[in-house]
Design a protein that fits this description.
single chain, 77 residues, mainly alpha, 2 helices, elongated
Length: 77
C-alpha cells in the first residue's frame, strides 16, 4: 500500500506541476527533501504572482466612485 500511495503522489505531481516545478527524481523518496522543495516552490510562486496581484490591490484601495445625479432618475426619488 505504501508503494501505491507513493506512486500516486508522484503521478499527482506530474499532472499538477510544470516541468520546472517538478522535484528532482532523487528527492522523491526523501520526505524532508520533498517538504523543503515544496516550501521553496511556494515562496517562488508567492513572489511570482504577488507582484501582479499587488497592482490590482492598489486600485481597490481608492475611494468609491461618486455617481453624478442623473436627470432621468430624479423622478424616482
Amino acid at each position: 500500500m505504501l508503494a501505491i500511495d507513493h506512486a500516486n503522489r508522484i503521478l499527482s505531481w506530474q499532472e499538477n506541476l510544470t516541468s520546472d516545478e517538478m522535484p528532482e527524481r532523487w528527492k522523491w523518496h526523501l520526505d524532508w527533501e520533498i517538504d523543503e522543495h515544496f516550501k521553496i516552490l511556494k515562496i517562488k510562486r508567492e513572489e511570482k504572482y504577488s507582484s501582479s496581484s499587488s497592482a490590482l490591490s492598489d486600485d481597490d484601495d481608492t475611494s468609491p466612485i461618486e455617481w453624478e445625479e442623473n436627470a432621468y432618475s430624479a423622478r424616482f426619488k
